[in-house]
């Protein structure tokens, strides 16, 4: 019998982990920025996309101006009250360089005890219970976002219940789509980018991601039968009609919390990878952390 990939087991733990950080917010998130503070959120790859989601959601909830940056693109010298740095490994070169170079207080969220980021950051939130054996990130990223959402006052009980439902949805037909474009609005744009990244990483698949309103400004040209358009959150008026006219498959889990729809997307990426005979735990050209000389 073929061993189940680590990433499949890790995906299945997400509902419980979301509940854990939501219920224990005081334990894990007491050092996160308070309302009214001007904040930057930073990460690389998946962590950057979680930072994007947090930044948009924090602003939309009226808790303060919040920007998101890839680690290499942080604007040195810009004034912030705090920088939230997300790094599963705690060893990523760009984020460590950023922390060393800034005088702004830094709050690191990581999964790795004794990693360099723990020593460098002013505060550390340790989510080692959400760490992963797979190179492909799933549960650390979403558990981090669940914690950040809880810090903004959101109730994660529905999201966790929806994630449990997401584990039961049949993904076989979705995994057969030739190409998928993921779209979202505001905080779900980050989720769209993350969903696209999962298929690229795990299955070497052609995927794209865009803000939903921008999708009609060119990207819709590739939509056709056999391809998909995956919508996170509420789609703009008329967009689904435009996609229907192309013959592409629309994927829209309207009744699920958008993070739960991301869980479905993770499962699709794994299913597609396995169907192609690939190893979703160890994608080609990737490692757990990018460490530069």
Automatic annotation (TrEMBL):
GO process terms (BP): carbohydrate derivative metabolic process
GO molecular function, one term: carbohydrate derivative binding
Matches recorded under Pfam families: SIS
Keywords: Repeat
Source species, domain of life: Bacteria
Record Gene3D superfamilies: Glucose-6-phosphate isomerase like protein, domain 1
Segments forming domain SIS: 29-166
Name this protein carries in UniProt: SIS domain-containing protein
Annotated organism of origin: Kribbella sindirgiensis
């Amino acid at each position: 019998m073929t061993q189940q990939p680590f990433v499949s087991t890790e995906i299945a733990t997400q509902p419980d982990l979301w509940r854990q950080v939501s219920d224990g917010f005081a334990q894990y998130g007491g050092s996160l920025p308070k309302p009214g503070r001007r904040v930057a959120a930073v990460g690389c790859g998946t962590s950057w996309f979680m930072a994007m989601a947090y930044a948009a959601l924090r602003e939309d909830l009226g808790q303060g101006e919040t920007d998101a940056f890839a680690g290499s693109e942080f604007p040195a010298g810009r004034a912030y009250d705090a920088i939230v740095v997300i790094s599963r490994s705690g060893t990523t070169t760009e984020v460590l360089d950023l922390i060393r170079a800034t005088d702004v207080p830094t709050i690191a969220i990581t999964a790795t005890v004794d990693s360099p980021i723990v020593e460098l950051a002013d505060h550390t939130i340790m989510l080692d219970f959400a760490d992963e054996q797979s190179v492909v990130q799933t549960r650390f990223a979403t558990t981090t976002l669940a914690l950040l959402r809880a810090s903004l006052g959101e109730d994660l009980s529905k999201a966790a219940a929806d994630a449990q439902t997401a584990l039961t949805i049949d993904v076989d037909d979705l995994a057969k789509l030739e190409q998928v474009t993921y779209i979202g609005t505001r905080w779900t744009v980050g989720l769209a980018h993350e969903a696209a990244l999962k298929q690229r990483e795990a299955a070497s698949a052609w995927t794209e991601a865009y803000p939903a309103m921008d999708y009609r400004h060119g990207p819709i040209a590739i939509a056709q039968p056999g391809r998909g358009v995956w919508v996170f959150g509420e789609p703009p008026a008329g967009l689904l009609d435009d996609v229907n006219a192309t013959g592409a498959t629309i994927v829209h889990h309207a009744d699920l919390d958008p993070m739960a729809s991301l869980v479905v997307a993770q499962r699709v990426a794994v299913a597609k990878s396995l169907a192609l005979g690939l190893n979703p735990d160890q994608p080609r050209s990737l490692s757990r952390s990018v460490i530069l000389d």
